[in-house]
Amino acid sequence: MESLLRTVCTEFLRAADLFARAVDELPDLPHEHRRGLLTERAGGVAEALSRLELLGLPAVTARAQSLSAQCRRLEKVAMKRAVLRSALDRLEASWCPRNAEECEDPHHSSAYVAWDLLTRWGQMEAEERWEELELLEFVLEDSRALNAVQVEQVLDAVNCVAAWNELIGGWARDPLMERFDAVRAEYVAATHDSLHRLAERSSAAAAA
Fold first, then answer.
1. Which helix (H) or strand (E) holds 78?
2. How much of the chain, in percent, has pLDDT values that exceed 70?
C-alpha cells in the first residue's frame, strides 16, 4: 500500500508541475500551439487526480483537489496571460537599444508607451482606461513589435481587468504562481504525513 500511495501521489504532483510549467512556457510558444499544450497538460492533471481519489485517503485527496482547482484557475487565465506576457516581452525588446531618453525613433517610443500602459492598466480607473484605449491601440500598432493579429489579441485581453495582476505577473512577484506554490506545498506536506503514518502502521504490524 505504501508503495502504491507513493507512486500515485508522485504521479499527480508531476502532472501538476508539468501543467504549471506549461503555463509558464506558453508566452514563448506560437499562439496556435498554446491551446493544445494546455489541454494536454490539464488532462494529465485530471487523470492523475482520478487515480489518486481511488486510494480513499481524505487528507491527501483534499489537498490534491485543492491543487487541481488551482490548476483550473491557471487554465482559465493562461491563454490571455500568455498573450500579454508575450506582448510585454516583445515591446520591451523593441525599446531603443541605445539611449532611450534621447531616442527620436517613433517606433521605439511607441513600444515603450505601449509597455508602460499595459503594466499600469490594472491600476487605472475605468474612465482612464477608456480614454487611453485608442492610444494603446495606436502605440501597439506603431511599435511594430506585434503583428495585426497579436495587437487584436492584446486589445481583447485588456478587458480582463479584474485579474490583471495574475495575467501579467511581475518582476518581483507573480501572485498566481505564488498561490500554486503554496497549495502545492500543502499537498506535499499532506502526502509526506500520510506516508509516514502508513509506514508507522506497517512497522507496528510487522512487530506484532
1. helix 58-93
2. 91
